[in-house]
Every structure is written in C-alpha cells, then in structure tokens.
Amino acid sequence: MRRTDAGFGSGLVETLMEIVRTRDLVLTMVLAVVFYAFYYPAPYQHQTALKLPMIVVDEEGTPATRALAQALNATREVAVVGTVGDYRVAVQDVKERHADGIVLLPKGISRALAAGEAGAGAAVWVNGAYLTRASAIGAAVKGVLMDQVAAQAAPLAAAVHRNVPIELVVRPLFNPNEGYASYIYPAVALLILQQTLMFGSAMLAATRRRAGRLPCTPGYFLGTLAALVVVGSGAAAFFFGWAFWVEDTPRTLQLAHLAWMVPLYAATVGALGLALGTHMPSAERAMMWLAPTSVVLFFLTGAAWPLDQMPRPVAWLAQLSPATAGVQAFVPVNQMGASPSDVARWLGLLGALLAGYGIWASWRLCGVRPAAPHAADHMDSTSIAR
C-alpha cells in the first residue's frame, strides 16, 4: 500500500507509534541504549591499577638500589615479586606470566641520580596490551625515582641553605582519573548511539518494505526521519546526561552546542539506517547483516588508532560512517570544552553525509516501488512462526 496523502505529521506520529508498539524496535532503540550505557563501562569501574606484579633487575646491587626496589614495592601500583641480577631471567619470568613487566635498575644509577645526570634513571617494560597498567606502573616508577632524587639531594641542599630544586606537578586536563574508561567510553558512546539507531531504522524500513507500505511523499519521509531524530536525541540525552553523570565520565555539558549537534548526528544515522533497510528483505536480516559491523566501525572512528596513521583509502572509507565524524566532533566538544568552530570540519562532514544519505533514503522510500515478498521472506516468516 502506497501512501499518497500522508504528510509530515502523519509520518512523525505513525513512526513513533510503530516504534513503541513493536517489541524488537523498543528492545533495539530504547532498552539496548540503557543496557549498554552501564554494561560497557562496568569492567572499568576501578580505573586505578593496584599491586601489579613486577620483576626488578638490579644490576648494581647496592643499598641504594635495594632501597629503590623496596620503595617501589611500597607503592599501591606495584608488587615486586622478585629481584634478579640478569635481565634475561626477568624476560623469561614475564614470558611465563609470573609478572606483568620489568623494572631495570642499571649499573651506576645511584651515582647518576645523586649527580643529577641527564638521561639517568630506570627502564620499564610493560605489556602494552594493558593501557591502564602501563601508565600506572610508569607513574609509580617515576614517583619513586623522584623521591629518591629528593632524598639524595636534600643533605646537600640543606648545607647550602637552598631548597631541593625538584618539583613535579601533574594535572591531567581531560582525563582526571587517567583511566581507560574515561578515555574510551565517550567515544564508544557515540558508536552505541549510531548502531542502536541505525539497527532500529533499518529494521523499520525493512518491515515497511516487506509489508509493501513504504511512504511515497516527501512530507511523510521527513516525518519518519524526524521521529528517528526524536528517538536518537532522547538516547543521546540519556547518555550525555544521566549515564555520564552516574559513571563520572569527564564532561563539559555545553548544552547550547549539543542542542543542535545531537539532532544533526541522529538525522544522519537515521537516514543511513532507512536507506540500508530498504535493501533488506526483512527486519531479522537487517539485524543479522548489520550487527557484525560494530567492532570494525569502532576501529574506524579514530579513537583506538588515529585516522592520520591509517592507510589513506581506509581513512577515507572510515568517514562514510557517521560515528567517525561523531567521535571527532562530540568528544572534543563534550569532554574537552572545544567549540563547534574547532570541529567545523567534522560537523561539515556530518552535514554532507546527511544530505547524501537523505537523498539515498528518500529515493529508496519514495521513488522505488516496494518489492513483492519473495522466498527468503516466506522462509523468515515460517521460521518465526515455528
């Protein structure tokens, strides 16, 4: 059935009612957002690494280096599980997973630290697969070395009536906890918002295509897209407001900017989902075909690996996903206090994607006659009935 008299209002109201009345759409576009808002950051609640096992290689074997090892073991980040004199023995211990890393105290470190020689210090090797562990251990070793330098220099400084010329002040700007969740969760949130809205939009279009009731008026299409913007904006408000507050995620809440950036992002994602859904034989196939894209699209956002370090064709391909522009625009504005002018390139990309995907979706929804149900559709119906 083709709609010839339905306008914007009908498209908006009917789409919202269809979402509310369809269990799969509610699960995908509403409940999944709530679930992932708290499920994803749950493993990273304790963002500080505690008592990670380390092997100390003490090549000097002096009281000063033994004091360094003891001081390191007294920190909350590191537990010294062994002290050896040979680096190769420590490497073997790490390979056998007796420890997560190695702290090397080379020969001459005591004299070098006391004299303040440039380049003097310890070397640290940590399993790079654990971002939080690497940063925590590095900070612990740095703090211990600074304390030892201060202790070594204090007697001399007192003799000449001067303060110890060592002061270290660290003030993280955008990740106060220096934790993994505070770093990655804001980026993943944009991908979650994209995937849940895109899945739901594709399922909606696929269901209408299968039933032969795709809209045919521009007004009805715009109303359908507006309904998806309402749902997507509500999900974003939940993430950026309630979920970020509960999880204590760094945020600036520049509401005046988010008030128009969020609908732009939601409209782009909704248009893409509608366009893709018109090519799907059923709602079940839409979810089946689109779900495996989540991991790939995350790595293409530039959050895990910088876009400028990717092969150029891959970086260009990545920009076809609204989440890429979304992460590059929303994270600086929402977490770092940037202004829209600072991310104008990415907001412009979102606008271009909205135009492109909007034209694609409107042509598929309004300009192409719905395909008749085929064998695959009947197979899906039969399997569901069973």
UniProtKB/TrEMBL annotation:
List the Gene3D superfamilies hit by this protein, alphabetically: abc type-2 transporter like domain
What are the protein's UniProt keywords?
A: Cell membrane, Membrane, Transmembrane, Transmembrane helix
Tell me, in one coarse class, where this protein mainly resides: membrane
Quick check: keyword Transmembrane in the entry? yes
Q: How does it sit in the membrane?
A: Multi-pass membrane protein
Checking InterPro entries in the record gives: ABC-2_transporter_component, ABC2_TM
Q: Mind telling me which residue stretches traverse the membrane in this protein?
A: 25-42, 183-207, 219-245, 257-276, 288-307, 343-363
Query: What range(s) does the ABC-2 type transporter transmembrane domain occupy?
Result: 25-360
Kindly give the Pfam families that the UniProt entry links to this protein: ABC2_membrane_3 (PF12698)
- List where in the cell it is found: Cell membrane
User: PANTHER family given for it?
Assistant: ABC TRANSPORTER PERMEASE (PTHR30294:SF46), MEMBRANE COMPONENT OF ABC TRANSPORTER YHHJ-RELATED (PTHR30294)
Protein name (Swiss-Prot/TrEMBL) = ABC transporter permease
Annotated source species: Ottowia flava
